[in-house]
């Protein structure tokens, strides 16, 4: 049994939820995840004691900075949807202190930095964030259709590597504190207001991707003083965050004329997330020429017992749409692969991602 001295408790995962050993691989990576909830470290660890859940982590960190060990370091936790990454990585689940902005607390951040320093020292490697699976600091989103570790932690990956490596070099570095929205200011729009906007940010802080296009919806939440204070909801699903400028400079009006939805999309759009994986549907799904219900139906489909290799996905109209290039026509194809929840997560997939 081995785990960091920084862990205050050991709450072992069910033997059904991890792999014994690491398949001959050495620990040379760290993969931070977010819990996507406000659990304590203990609650998270206990959730992995449920037999048959087929999920676990080496460590769980709560918003109070508590670190709980869950899977011994000599064993592979089932955390990242990728055999090779989990065999080489110490995986860490971190609590969110806000489930709208997906931030983590200063205490959780400090605990994460301290744990990463400890792991790197003991296994003799440094953190290198490359933005893909080749680095020693990886993310769940690199291996499957998920937003984990959330937009906030995703934006902090380069900073995490910088702080940890500085500590390894013997430098004293004040850990970066998760920022909070500034003091309340006078936002023009309020909750339940129908709007059109040409700008969508993945979070209210603007620390992640910001897209330009044309969207309509209803303001579902207002965070005073944030860079993008308005959460835009469509059909009960949050699709992003916007601000006064995005709303005021959009030429459309709610309920008025809107940009037509393309029925054929062969190019890669700005919101395309590259991912090379295989999807096994468990229901019959139509193949379309665009990621929309209005996309031209090709007349073909995938159903239970079949599989498709795809190269990326988008999140539109409340669904995850996977995409690939047709071998017979050379055209891009699109297919719904799951339903997004109000937080934008694919919690109701139409099959299995591998």
Automatic annotation (TrEMBL):
<dbReference type="Pfam" id="PF08460">
    <property type="entry name" value="SH3_5"/>
</dbReference>
<dbReference type="GO" id="GO:0009254">
    <property type="term" value="P:peptidoglycan turnover"/>
</dbReference>
<dbReference type="InterPro" id="IPR036505">
    <property type="entry name" value="Amidase/PGRP_sf"/>
</dbReference>
<protein>
    <recommendedName>
        <fullName>N-acetylmuramoyl-L-alanine amidase</fullName>
        <ecNumber>3.5.1.28</ecNumber>
    </recommendedName>
</protein>
<dbReference type="InterPro" id="IPR002502">
    <property type="entry name" value="Amidase_domain"/>
</dbReference>
<dbReference type="InterPro" id="IPR003646">
    <property type="entry name" value="SH3-like_bac-type"/>
</dbReference>
<dbReference type="GO" id="GO:0071555">
    <property type="term" value="P:cell wall organization"/>
</dbReference>
<dbReference type="GO" id="GO:0009253">
    <property type="term" value="P:peptidoglycan catabolic process"/>
</dbReference>
<keyword id="KW-0961">Cell wall biogenesis/degradation</keyword>
<feature type="compositionally biased region" description="Low complexity">
    <location>
        <begin position="175"/>
        <end position="185"/>
    </location>
</feature>
<feature type="region of interest" description="Disordered">
    <location>
        <begin position="172"/>
        <end position="191"/>
    </location>
</feature>
<dbReference type="Pfam" id="PF01510">
    <property type="entry name" value="Amidase_2"/>
</dbReference>
<dbReference type="GO" id="GO:0008745">
    <property type="term" value="F:N-acetylmuramoyl-L-alanine amidase activity"/>
</dbReference>
<keyword id="KW-0378">Hydrolase</keyword>
<dbReference type="InterPro" id="IPR051206">
    <property type="entry name" value="NAMLAA_amidase_2"/>
</dbReference>
<feature type="domain" description="N-acetylmuramoyl-L-alanine amidase">
    <location>
        <begin position="15"/>
        <end position="150"/>
    </location>
</feature>
């Amino acid at each position: 049994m081995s785990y960091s001295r920084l862990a205050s408790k050991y709450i072992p995962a069910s033997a059904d939820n991890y792999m014994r050993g690491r398949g001959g691989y050495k620990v040379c990576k760290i993969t931070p995840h977010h819990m996507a909830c406000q659990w304590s470290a203990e609650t998270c660890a206990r959730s992995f004691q449920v037999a048959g859940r087929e999920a676990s982590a080496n460590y769980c960190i709560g918003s109070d900075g508590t670190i709980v060990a869950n899977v011994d370091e000599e064993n592979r936790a089932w955390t990242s949807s990728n055999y090779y990454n989990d065999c080489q990585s110490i995986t860490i689940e971190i609590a969110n202190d806000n489930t709208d902005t997906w931030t983590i607390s200063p205490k959780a951040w400090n605990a994460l930095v301290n744990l990463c320093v400890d792991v790197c020292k003991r296994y003799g490697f440094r953190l290198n964030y490359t933005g893909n699976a080749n680095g020693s600091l990886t993310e769940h989103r690199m291996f499957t259709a998920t937003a984990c570790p959330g937009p906030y932690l995703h934006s902090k990956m380069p900073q995490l590597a910088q702080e940890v490596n500085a500590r390894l070099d013997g430098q004293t570095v004040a850990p970066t504190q998760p920022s909070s929205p500034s003091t309340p200011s006078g936002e023009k729009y309020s909750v339940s207001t129908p709007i059109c906007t040409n700008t969508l940010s993945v979070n209210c802080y603007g620390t992640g991707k910001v897209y330009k296009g044309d969207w309509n919806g209803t303001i579902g939440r207002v965070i005073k003083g944030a860079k993008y204070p308005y959460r835009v909801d469509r059909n009960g699903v949050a699709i992003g965050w916007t601000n006064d400028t995005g709303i005021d400079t959009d030429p459309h009006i709610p309920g008025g004329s809107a940009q037509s939805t393309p029925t054929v999309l062969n190019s890669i759009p700005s919101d395309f997330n590259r991912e090379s994986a295989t999807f096994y549907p468990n229901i019959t799904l139509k193949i379309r020429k665009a990621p929309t219900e209005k996309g031209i139906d090709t007349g073909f489909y995938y159903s239970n017992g079949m599989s498709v290799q795809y190269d990326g996905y988008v999140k539109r109209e409340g669904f995850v749409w996977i995409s690939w290039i047709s071998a017979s026509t050379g055209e891009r194809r699109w297919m719904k692969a799951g339903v997004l929840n109000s937080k934008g997560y694919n919690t109701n997939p139409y099959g299995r991602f591998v």
